[in-house]
Each structure stands twice: as C-alpha cells, then as structure tokens.
Amino acid sequence: MSLTTRLSAYFLTALALVLLGFSLTLFLLVRNHLMDQTNQRLELAMQTILAAVEVHAEDVEWEPLERHITLGEDPGADQVRWLVHDDKGRLVDCSVNLLTAPPDAYASGSLEGWRVLSRRLRAGRFDPEPVHEEIAPDQLPGRVMLPSDRTYRGSAVTVRVGLPWHPVAAALQQLAWTLLGVSAGLWGMGALLSRRVCRRAIRPVVEMAGCAKTLRGDQPGQLLPVAPTGDEVEDLGHAFNDLLKRLQEVLQQQQRFAGDASHQLRTPLTAVLGQVEVALRQERSPEEYQRVLQ
User: Fold this and answer.
1) Strand order in 91-94's β-sheet?
2) Is residue 120 within 8 Å of residue 114, measured between CB atoms?
C-alpha cells in the first residue's frame, strides 16, 4: 500500500467519523427540540382545558356551553386534540377535530402514533394529578354517543390532550435522509480530493526518494533536493543532506589515506623487488638466497 493510499484511507475514515458524529448530534438536538416543543404545546393545551373545569368542595363541573373552547377546532394533522372522561372512564366531551377523525386514529398512550398528556381533577382538590391509565377502546370518539349537552357534574374528571406524532416523525425522517445525503456527498467529494491533496503533500518526499536512488558514491557533492515547505519534510531533507555530507567527508578521508599509504609503501617495495630480481638472476644455493633476502 502506497503512502498516498494510506493517508487517503486515514483521512476518509476520520472524515466519516466526523460526519457521522455531526449528523447524529444534529439529529438528536433537533429531535429533542421538537419533543420539547410538543411537550410545551401539550402543557399549554392542558392548562387551557383545566381552566374550563370548575372544582368545588363536593364535586367538579364541566360545562363547555358556558365556556366555549376553541382549542381543537382546527382539523389540521398537527393540531391538538383533547378528551374529557368522568370518574368512571366514560367519555363526556372531546374536541371537534376528533369527531371528524376515524375511530382508530386515536391510540391513547401510544408514543408511536400520539403523544398524550393526562391529568385528573378531583372534588376539593385544585391540583391536577397525573394519570397513566389508558382509555377504554369503547370510550373513544365515534364509538360512544356523547351526552347531548356534554355537561358533567361528579367527583372527578380526567382530561387528556394529545398531539399526533407522525408529522414530527416525518420531519425527523426527512432530516435523517437529508443529513445522510449531505454526509455522503461530502464524503464523496473528500474521496475525490483526498488522493490529489495527499499526492501534493508528499511530493517533496517522492522527489527526495527518486533523487536518492540516483546517487552514486563516485560523484561527491550530490545532495537531495529540499523543497522550502517550512515543515518536518524540509527538516528531514536537511537532515539527510547533512548525513550525506558527513559520509562524503569520511569517503574522501579514506581515499586520501589510501593514496598516502600507497605513496609511502612504494619506495620500500621497489627496493625489495630490486633485491629479489638481483637474487634471481643466477642460480644460488639456499644459504645464499637466505643471505641475500635478509
């Protein structure tokens, strides 16, 4: 694997992790923001409905004809719906936009379809208490006949307000696909540009490596080309050139030593060779050869 490929792989991996982290963080922030907005709308709607309930010491009273509630008249898919049940779980009243919805459009407590907030007001108690009970299937709008006047007087009422979750889920899904497309596009652009950028970044190293292959020991003074990059690559080039200079100095010292040694040994070797040649001009006994060579 070449250095360019290795650097490109590192860069693309880091880019993928950054894009993944950014997309996930942005998605979670938007999701939490939409959930907070939904909860705030539910709380405001709950306060509006609870304000229409009269709490007495002996009973609670629900009279929507005296207190007209406009909340829930808009049939939009992202509008608030509300329900009022008596102390036995029977449907007393509901918003107008629930009457036009199909019976299976309201799933109480289901986070997949709706986000529901439930409160109960009891006689003699002005603080509503949370309710975690689900609505009986036969007490949904369209499945039970509402009272003609929709009024109620009894020991307690349960108020539920809900918002459909599917518009928020659709917006989150669109955001997820958008983030995925943008991240994939940025990663693709990074993949196209990374090799070019990496090749340009390591070009000085490639040039030094190519020049190092052509260096010969019998050509002193040759150095590596160092690009003025002002970074570690330039420092590396200067360090190699300093090493080459020291090696060339050592080689020159060895050559001078060899020349001086050959010059110093030439005269005695010539004398020895002359004596040997003189001794070999005629036949001699071993004793005479030994005496001449000594």
Assistant:
1) 91-94, 81-86, 156-164, 114-122, 129-130
2) no
Residue 230 is predicted with a pLDDT of: 65
What CA–CA distance (Å, rounded) separates 106 from 144? 14
Contacts of 266 (CB under 8 A, 6+ apart): none
Chain-centroid distance, C-alpha 242:
44
Per-residue buried b or exposed e for 211-233, using 16+ beta carbons within 10 Å of the residue's own CB = eeeeeeeeeeeebbebeeeeeeb
Nearest-angstrom CA–CA distance, 128 and 141: 24
Query: What is the rounded CA–CA span in Å between residue 284 and residue 294?
Result: 15
In angstroms, the Cα distances linking 181 to 8, 176, 177, 184, 284 are: 21, 9, 6, 5, 105
Per-residue pLDDT tens over the stretch 3-62: 777 778 888 899 999 999 999 999 999 999 999 999 999 999 999 999 889 988 888 998
Q: Is-contact 78 113, C-beta < 8 A?
A: no
Facing residues of 162 across strands? 81, 116
Q: Around Cβ 141, how many Cβ atoms within 10 Å?
A: 22
Question: How far, in Å, CA of 68 to CA of 79, rounded?
Answer: 18
Comparing CA positions, the residue from 146, 128, 153, 134 lying closest to residue 91 is: 146
- Kindly list the strands in the beta sheet with 53-55, ordered across the sheet, starting from the edge strand earlier in the chain: 53-55, 60-62, 152-154
Beta strands in the chain (DSSP E): 53-55, 60-62, 81-86, 91-94, 114-122, 129-130, 152-154, 156-164
User: pTM here?
Assistant: 0.64
